Amino acid sequence: MKAALSLALISALSASATKSISDIKRVTNLATVPNKFIVEVSAPAALASKRELGTPHEQLYRSLKARKISFDVENEYDSPGLFVGAALTLADTQAVSKILETEGVVAIRPIRTYARPKPVLIKAGISPKDAGLPDAESTHVMTGVDKLHAKGITGKGVKIGIIDSGIDYSHPSLGGKFGSGNKIAGGFDFVGDGYTGGNAPTPDEDPMDCGGHGTHVAGIVGANPGNEFNISGVAPDATIFGYRIFGCEGSTNDDVIVDALLRGVKDGMNILTLSLGGSDGWTEGTGSVVSSRIAATGRIVTIAAGNEGASGSWYTASPGNGIDVISVASVDNVVIPLQTIQVTGVTHAPIVYYATFPLPVNGTLPLYATSKTSDVADDACNSNPLPADTPDLSGFVVLVRRGTCNFTEKLANVAAHGAKVVLIYDNGRGFAGISVGDYTAVLIQTEDGNFLAEQLASGAKISVSFPQTGGTVNFDDPKGGLVSDFSTFGPTNDMYFKPALAAPGGNIMSTYPLAKGKWALLSGTSMATPFVAGSSALLLQFKGKNAAVGRSARTLFQSTAATVSSSKTDNDPLQPASQQGAGLIQVYDALYATTTLSKGELLLNDTAHFAGKQKFTVTNNGKKAKSYSLKHVAAATALTLDKNSFPALYPVPVSANVAQVSFNADKFKLQPGQSHEVAVTVKAPTGDEAASLPVYSGYIYVSSANEIVHTSYLGVAAALKNTKVVDNTDIFFGVQLPTILDSTGNPQKGAVNYTFVGDNAPTLLWRQLFGTPALRFDLVDAATKFTPTLKTRAKDSHVISFTQKHNGGTFAKVPILGPLLELQYLSRNDEQQETAQYTVALTNTFANGTVIPNGTYKVLLRALKVTGNPTNEDDWESWLSPIFGIAA
Ligand SMILES: *[C@@H]1O[C@H](CO)[C@@H](O)[C@H](O)[C@H]1NC(C)=O
Ligand SMILES: *[C@@H]1O[C@H](CO)[C@@H](O)[C@H](O)[C@H]1NC(C)=O
Ligand SMILES: *[C@@H]1O[C@H](CO)[C@@H](O)[C@H](O)[C@H]1NC(C)=O
Ligand SMILES: *[C@@H]1O[C@H](CO)[C@@H](O)[C@H](O)[C@H]1NC(C)=O
Ligand SMILES: *[C@@H]1O[C@H](CO)[C@@H](O)[C@H](O)[C@H]1NC(C)=O
Ligand SMILES: *[C@@H]1O[C@H](CO)[C@@H](O)[C@H](O)[C@H]1NC(C)=O
Ligand SMILES: *[C@@H]1O[C@H](CO)[C@@H](O)[C@H](O)[C@H]1NC(C)=O
């Protein structure tokens, strides 16, 4: 029998695995560190009468010892007004409730882990010979930063703390040196090279980057102009501090992030920027809470919204979900770098193909087309086999038309004749990246393919080559200026407006560690976030480095942003605000706006907590009287759940049912310095099924003769409390969930006694369709009379009978033998990711470590619905496990 602590948490199905239950791996997948918690205590001011008792930390430790709670201190925080407390490792997680009852303790939260940021695209070591790479100017032009630089507004005197993987300050465009007086003027390494998120940090003074991410971020904030790529940061004269919180490999944790945030405040940073986060949906983690408090004091905090657009809604990342933080979405750069082919034998400019890296093909090879004309729809498909006299194609580059069958089928057919390199030409479907498995094949555009096919048909001898350097061109991205596909969708489960706004983050060139090629092209909200940090430096330099300007920053950037369409087709609706926020930042407009709004976001909440009557103030800060008119433009309504209550994946379906908005007055006139209060009445849309959880949003434009600003609104046309939180279907694994896996990893069939020796132990498996504010597992008697809300497989439901009516419905009346696990603010699962499900391996102990006696039991799972009242039993979903025996 193992003296294991409470529950070990294991699991994970990798996204690429089949959805087979037996593939579930036994590795932890809850994004929290088992047994580590951050305790927050009252600041000394609140305990003035007790100062003689020592520091708040000493008082806390004394109280915990008096209560016989054993703990180790991992970290202490002492920033009165922001955060005072400690990160503790507890021997017994049941101590959590005792700690919460301890005098002076304000909160205790689990320590969340954050994976290393994964840029969507990484192209390192780009060469200056790759002429035509998108210089940073294209993003500056998209946002008006170029105009501010021309006026000499470059962030001088503003301090920006970058919390990331460190910075390679030896990069010449980042100043070449570290320390006071340099661009990278300070910072700290909180973790050391060897930190993985799962071991002890070894801090030092030197925040040198061994990853690359932080160096790229630093260049977006403040690279010096005048380099070989003509790149410059948004705020090249700002002073940067590097706070390193990632080792060379692995993840990081909330306890380290909080340390870095508070250090940044102590070092006098005006702006803190974090290009990191974990998909979440809640505003409540320690990192989120502390970031938000720092922002509320007038420092500007910019944090990435996340790169999980593929996973659908309600998924924005923490700590960016912190309420007062600026959570940043990504818009694609207007240009993307693509590769070209050189053509000989006919006169034609280099032909663009859709690839970031050159195809690794040497020399000049003759071109061979599989069809004589360019209009063969099923070119090289099974339905149109290559003729028997087709030559050996291994010495050729083979030209094949797109269409009828898939790429793999075409490529297999030409490969059967020896083909090694294939150009597929588009048939009008659209020029984009294609997936071709292990084949060497790329897409070219329709016109280019037609030209080559026709020239070959008319007898031309054409050869092509793939330049390995110097072949990169600036291609006008057909999706440039639109919200990046990968940018994560909000809102939060508590209906906050996340992300706040967007900045260029798709296809961004910036500095990279010298050891890793000096320059790189990356995509991600990690790249959009420092853009807003740099923009904030321009704002503070221009309007003054004070708390009032800091507090106004988000509203100012939101109200002057450019709202983004869902496509480049005229009259298509605006992209939902739950993905673009208030729109693409327009930094020049934000600084020079003469009309200001008191609110950049109107939070309408759900139908049960509907805040349909809203007010905001319009102020004319200009020198002339202005006549204003109001106009409402709705964005597309996002239908966020599918028919099974699973999150709807990208592209999130949209509906044209939108809110109706009316005002107290559509037009008004303001003298200089005057304000007007706009009263807004919003009627939520009704045309969509509440079960699809329609997230509606839109914009109220306030226009004068020479200026348009806007406020954004967002709500959900359903009551969140009706949303299912636990998956009770068999859709995902073909097995009804939740379930208990036996020691072979298969769903338990019939009664089983577990010995808890080696793998002989049960594992709970469940999926969260939606986040839950509270989830608990309790051990109950096998004969428990309780009717759960969720079905168990018929053959497992042994002893269930209807329970006596609980008067007052108090949840506490369900008789339990003891708690096994309690979780707060749990994120939903994501079928696109490793966290497709949660699993918990049971041990034969309660959460407090006490051994459970031999006998037969069930596990009772209870999950609180969003906005549910924890004391109301009806607001919880519940599930009773099959009977299992303990014989340990
Ligand atoms: C760099 O920028 C300068 C000034 O904007 C311009 O004249 C020059 O052509 C640019 N060089 C490259 C390589 O883009
Ligand atoms: C291309 O040529 C180089 C140098 O001869 C060689 O190292 C490389 O393996 C070749 N690549 C391919 C794909 O044949
Ligand atoms: C492509 O089509 C073939 C049938 O020819 C099919 O077996 C294969 O699964 C398809 N591949 C993809 C990626 O759709
Ligand atoms: C929406 O209402 C719920 C329930 O009252 C509340 O907890 C939440 O904070 C509200 N959200 C906002 C953004 O006001
Ligand atoms: C541990 O928890 C169990 C179940 O709640 C309880 O019966 C037992 O008394 C607890 N043990 C200690 C030492 O608190
Ligand atoms: C499990 O153990 C109990 C005694 O605790 C025994 O009555 C029961 O028959 C055992 N069940 C199985 C399936 O071995
Ligand atoms: C529990 O059951 C196991 C297996 O039957 C047995 O070895 C063990 O002694 C039992 N423990 C107690 C305390 O009875």
Q: How would you describe this structure to a colleague?
A:
Keywords: Cell wall, Hydrolase, Protease, Secreted, Serine protease, Signal. It comes from Mycena indigotica. Residues 1-20 form the signal peptide. Residues 155-583 form the Peptidase S8/S53 domain. The structure is a single chain. The protein has 888 residues and is an alpha+beta fold. It folds into five domains: 21-25 and 724-886, no CATH class; 32-112, Peptidase S8 propeptide/proteinase inhibitor I9 (Alpha-Beta Plaits); 113-334 and 477-589, Peptidase S8/S53 domain (Rossmann fold, 3-Layer(aba) Sandwich); 338-470, 3-Layer(bba) Sandwich (Glucose Oxidase, domain 1); 594-722, Immunoglobulin-like, CATH 2.60.40. Helix content is 14%, strand content 29%. It has 13 helices and 46 strands. Strands 16, 17, 18, 19, 20, 21, 22 and 23 form an eight-stranded mixed beta sheet that branches. The protein has a seven-stranded parallel beta sheet with strand order 8-9-7-11-13-15-24, with helices on both faces. Strands 28, 30, 31, 32, 34, 36 and 37 form a seven-stranded mixed beta sheet that branches. A hairpin with a 6-residue loop joins strand 16 (335-344) and strand 17 (351-353). Helix 5 (213-222) runs parallel beside helix 10 and helix 6 (254-266) packs parallel to helix 7. The termini are close together.
